[in-house]
Amino acid sequence: MTDRQIPSWSELKPLMRPKPLVWNGTERRLADALTIADLRTVARKRTPRSVFDYTDGAAEAEISLRRARHLFRELEFQPSILHDVSHVDPTTDMIGTPSALPFAFAPTGFTRMMNHEGERAVVRVAQRRGIPYALSTMGTTSIEDVAAAGPEARKWFQLYVWKDRSAGEDLMARAKAAGYEALMLTVDVPVAGARLRDARNGFSIPPALTVKTVVDAATHPAWWMNLLTTEPLTFASLSSWSGTVADLLDKLFDPTMTIADLEWIRASWDGPLIIKGIQTVADARRVTDAGADAVVLSNHGGRQLDRAPVPLRLLPDVAAAVGDRTQVWVDTGIMSGADVVAALALGADATLVGRAYLYGLMAGGERGVDRAVQILEREIRRTMALLGVSTVKELGPQHVRLP
Predict the structure, then answer these.
(1) Which alpha helices (DSSP H) does 290-354 contain, by range?
(2) Structural domain boundaries enclosing 320
(3) pTM for this model (two decimals)
(4) H or E element in which residue 133 lies
(5) CA angle 151–153–156, rounded 5-degree value
(6) Distance (Å, rounded) from C-alpha 304 to C-alpha 317?
(7) What value does the CA radius of gyration of the chain take, rounded to a whole number of Å?
(8) Which of 116, 220, 300, 399 is catalytic?
(9) What is the domain count for the chain?
(10) Among candidate residues 352, 304, 311, the one with its CA nearest the CA of residue 72
(11) Domain at 321, CATH number
(12) Distant-in-sequence, close-in-space partners of 288: CB < 8 Å, separation ≥ 6
């Protein structure tokens, strides 16, 4: 029979360590978010459905996005033991300059829709964390205002080619004058993909005050208050628009663009050129032959052609074909630091993340974006150490097996 006794206070006191009470709700929610998926859950609760779905959704049946995430989930790591991993360095080179982490913030449109702090919040985090940020042509903060918000950040400008070529030339000139380091040309949007969540939600820019949105406002009062009491939501690169995203893309973007038009780009831009939206080995060779300083294997986060190639699956072949002549980056489906490490091991020089930081932005503004970076960095460092590597250059195909 077990003898029992009543514990004394001196015995109980060391066990009494209550969690510090955090009065600020945003800080409390962010502190409790341990993964990007956790940030996504917070974002979903704090953002109107149409805005959340614009970020979260993809084209048609969303097969491309599901396949990309499924491949990351199903791959198998191959760790090597008994290596000194007391210091892990996740720094990598991106177009000739070190990035403190092996990813950059991808360009995203309409960012102030997600949170009123928008692009300014993102570039400030990029500056603080030592990683690049690509401002979208469809951003909602001007080229100059983003530059002012992050004067020391590595800034790239993402360009869509418009039917009005003079407008593109003006944007490139403004980016160059504002100190943007590189141009990222996105080539997978000759026409808009069929983003059915947006169509079903009646999503427009800016949001129209319909019965549906007024009802939604009652459940997301803070978001609507921020939208209505801060500077009007406008585009960085055009004066105004009052239709759907798909209508806007189809009105502006030039479906006649060909590989020959890269000469036009080079006539206006003499800095590093990144080509985003590569989905075949043949196209990777074509743009590399045309002088791309980096290619981004991407199906636009699954937002354009459904059933498009999964970029991660394509990566080893592209790296073998052009990796000795240009940098090869990858995006789509990256939701953790382990995903980033897997892409590096399979041949990527670096990665881009988009939705991951937007979930943070929706969850808590600038603090939420910073929390997303904290989560990804912690996961990258831990995964590298557990694989037995201390630098990005040590990662290789021996560390990952694809299904």
Answers:
(1) 311-322, 337-345
(2) 27-401
(3) 0.92
(4) strand 133-135
(5) 105
(6) 22
(7) 22
(8) 300
(9) 1
(10) 311
(11) 3.20.20.70
(12) 295, 322, 325, 326
